[in-house]
Design a protein that fits this description.
This protein is mainly beta. The chain is 10% helix and 39% strand.
Length: 157
């Protein structure tokens, strides 16, 4: 597994990211988190060691995406989703999230494609103080691709 030796060059950071949500560049967010899993079960048989004989091919779970941003940016995004759905519901509109990381000195750009998304939850916790109002979106995707690679077995997909 080759990796490039790095001496005095830029690594990917927050400023390296360009994020597009539902076809629009998103600037007013401060955090995005996501995690997909492939849950596999061990298979056992009768043997002295009682170690597993094998494992199943697994079941893919694309997990939840959490997007945190300034209330004004999130509100504008939700309004755009409602317009896409042709109703007042922002929960009906399908969309994709594309995250590109580009940095001088990095040979390969990093691209994450989060496919067939729907908003499932909107949360906020506002309190007195100098901070801007923030909102959290929970988003349900169907698939996450990292540089075109997937966690699930895609031979029949």
């Amino acid at each position: 597994m080759p990796d490039t030796p790095r001496v005095n060059n830029n690594q990917y950071g927050w400023g390296s990211l360009e994020t597009e949500v539902a076809g629009q560049r998103l600037f007013g967010y401060t955090e995005i988190s996501f995690k997909d899993t492939r849950n596999r079960s061990y298979t056992y048989g009768q043997n002295r060691s009682q170690k597993p004989r094998g494992r199943t091919s697994g079941k893919y779970d694309p997990g939840q995406v959490t997007l945190t941003g300034y209330a004004s940016s999130i509100s504008a995004f939700l309004k755009a989703l409602a317009n896409l759905s042709g109703t007042s519901s922002f929960g009906n509109a399908p969309f994709e999230i594309i995250i590109n990381a580009v940095e001088d000195g990095e040979e390969t750009p990093m691209t994450v494609l989060i496919e067939d998304c729907r908003v499932t939850s909107v949360g906020e916790s506002w309190s007195e103080g100098e901070d801007a109002l923030m909102q959290d979106l929970e988003i349900q995707p169907m698939c996450i691709r990292r540089n075109g690679l997937v966690l699930f077995d895609d031979r029949d997909f």
